[in-house]
Amino acid sequence: MTASLLDGNAFLNHVKADLHARTLALGERGITPGLATVLVGEDLNSAAYVRMKHEDCAEIGINSFREDLPATSSQADVIAAINRCNVNPEIDGFIVQLPLPNGLDDEAALMAIDPSKDADGLHPVNLGRLVMGSNAPIPCTPAGIQALLAFNGVEIEGKHVVIIGRGLTIGRPLANLLALKRAHANAAVTVIHTGVPDLSYYTRQADILISAVGSPSVVTPEMVKPGAALVSAGISFGEGRRLIPDIDEACGEVAGWITPRIGGVGPTTRAMLLSNAVAAAERSAGAP
Length: 288
Description:
The model has no long low-confidence stretch (mean pLDDT 94). The chain has two domains: 127 residues, 3-Layer(aba) Sandwich (Rossmann fold); 122 residues, Rossmann fold (3-Layer(aba) Sandwich). The protein is an alpha/beta fold and 288 residues long. 44% of the residues are buried. The protein is built from nine helices and eleven strands. The strands form three sheets. A six-stranded parallel sheet has the order 1-11-8-7-5-6. Strands 3-2-4 form a three-stranded parallel sheet, sandwiched between helices. Strands 9-10 form a two-stranded antiparallel sheet. It starts with a strand and ends with a helix.
């Protein structure tokens, strides 16, 4: 492989060191940030993600809280758990682990979150602030991708970014984020999706190519501009539950940068979740 790796774990460790220092500063004022999760059901991947988030909290000195509900929970049960997080003064931010089990309404759950405690940045109020370019919690995976590129010295301003996927959690907010006139953004952004018959026409023009569709190896080497930065934000699982990224690993022979099969975007999402929680605590404390 000729491409440099966009190592999400190295980035996560860097962010944790900064956040640990900030939590110590808050601790000197008698304040401990609090992050909560609402998990419904027994999905193994969701449970693993939540477990790692709580381990991260313990590592940097954040109090963590859990609302674990059975898959048989009603929508009212989920809303009640969200409301407990909304009113708990020890919780500065929290997330509802999505997707919820079949029969439950993801949108209604997001709407029930207090926007000031929205650690995932997915409440409509916060998404609207993102579109306006106002200060608000930014969705964790888009923020993590932007920060990972900046951390590795990949220039974004003025570059052509192509995003495959228009989903609520990554594609749409990421397109807005990278087009804003601010540091590590100000790019020309193209969003492509299933309605586009020839993806490669656009991907070959991309200085930065980000795929967020969860389709194994949807991007192959002949679809990549030489020297481009490649970010695989979508994953799927093959035989033996082997993780398969959207962007084929062979693309590393063409690209300038590429996320690894394991340890790419996932750790950056966790980093930004922690960052949103600490920032919420600082806002509540009136920290500069």
